[in-house]
Design a protein that fits this description.
Elements: E1 4-9, H1 17-31, E2 35-40, E3 56-59, H2 71-88, E4 95-98, H3 101-107, E5 116-120, H4 125-130, H5 134-141, E6 146-149, H6 152-161, E7 166-168, E8 187-191, H7 200-212, E9 220-224, H8 230-237, E10 243-246, H9 252-256, E11 261-264, H10 273-280, E12 285-288, H11 292-297, E13 304-307, H12 312-323, H13 326-339, H14 345-359
Helix pairs in contact: 7-12
Length: about 350
């Protein structure tokens, strides 16, 4: 079996999401003797420095695609495809893993003879339908050797939608924290993109309800992230006490180790890595019931509280229930850390190697 693996993503510069997973997989597979290359279609903002990497890093474009269709976009895409083909042809065929559907749409225009292909979607099927990506996913991934969803529930639903090659494999934790979070912390943390689907404004509304009720006076709220809702968050903060808006962090554990409760108010999610990391460090969560992945991570309530999505009052109630009960918070934190052992990197890498053997048969 070839030990060559190419991991293709929309970009490889974002701090979170599929990009972090690609980097974790690349480092893990390289440590097991695989010849790994990660490829980003286009750059995004400042380039992530892959310092002392044990894998190769490539970008198909030096500048992002233009927003409008036209000759410039066509020319850039043709150049991107030539570079991708050159990367694929630089050694013997192996396994191509496409982390996102747009990246797969580029790979489909290349000669993939001899390659085994694995396609991924890093969110729920509901998110795919909400974002109008479902039809694209069904087209792009119908002929790959294996399509991977994040949960068994999503794999079943993708199969029902027409992908007969669907299976599932959860994302791994980037690292296992050796110490647990500060159990005395009185901080509620939101850690993620400030955008509509993540619903940070629902959390701000919940915090307003809590403050108006005169509860959690010794607790703070940290909003860590950036995105299109920056201005709305800043405006909402002006008359709310004990709220900070902080810049994104490269290492989430830096923020999580001083967190008492993680808030996940999202409207749609897949298998949120930040929730996995919080549970691994012993931080319980209050999360909206927005995906099979969230339910699996919280183990149907053993590792945190599930509340109705988009419901600020329910979110406020859940935060108060957890913040005002030290014993409950400690118990859910212990159970969450234990539950996350199943997502430890080496265990997930074992499953990837089994998958590689399967698609090469």
């Amino acid at each position: 079996m070839s030990k060559r693996v190419v991991l293709l993503a929309n970009n490889i510069d974002e701090l979170g999401g599929a990009q972090r997973v690609v980097q974790v997989l690349a480092g893990g597979l390289a440590s097991r003797g695989y010849d790994v290359t990660i490829v980003g279609v286009e750059p995004l903002g400042e380039r992530t420095a892959h310092v002392a990497s044990t894998y190769q890093v490539e970008r198909l474009l030096e500048t992002p695609y233009p927003k409008q269709a036209g000759a410039e976009l066509d020319s850039l895409r043709a150049g991107a495809l030539r570079k991708l083909q050159a990367i694929l042809d630089a050694g013997e065929p192996g396994i191509l893993v496409t982390a996102q559907v747009w990246a797969m749409e580029h790979a489909l225009d290349c000669d993939l003879v001899g390659w085994r292909t694995i396609g991924q979607f890093h969110s729920s099927i509901e998110a795919a339908a909400f974002g109008k990506d479902l039809d694209r996913i069904l087209r792009a991934y119908r002929d790959v050797d294996q399509f991977l969803a994040l949960t068994s529930v999503d794999a079943m639903r993708f199969t029902q939608a027409g992908l007969n090659n669907a299976s599932w494999l959860p994302n791994p934790l980037a690292q296992w924290p050796s110490e647990v979070a500060n159990p005395q912390s009185r901080t509620v943390t939101y850690l993620g993109r400030l955008s509509a689907e993540k619903a940070p404004m629902t959390l701000m509304q919940a915090w307003r309800i809590i403050c108006e009720q005169g509860r959690l006076g010794d607790w703070n709220l940290n909003i860590i992230g950036s995105g299109p809702h920056d201005v709305q968050i800043q405006a909402a903060m002006t008359d709310l006490p004990r709220v900070q808006l902080l810049a994104p962090v490269a290492d989430p554990y830096v923020a999580l180790k001083e967190t008492g409760i993680l808030a996940v108010p999202s409207l749609i999610e897949g298998l949120p890595l930040v929730l996995m990391e919080a549970l691994a460090i012993g931080v319980p969560a209050v999360a909206s019931d927005c995906s099979a992945g969230v339910r699996e991570l919280l183990d149907e309530g053993r590792c945190g509280l599930l509340v109705n999505r988009g419901d600020a009052a329910a979110l406020a109630s859940g935060l108060c229930e957890l913040a005002e009960n030290d014993e409950l918070r400690a118990r859910l934190g212990r159970q969450g850390r234990e539950h996350m052992l199943a997502y430890e990197r080496e265990r997930i890498l074992d499953q990837w190697e089994q998958l590689f053997e399967s698609v090469n048969r």
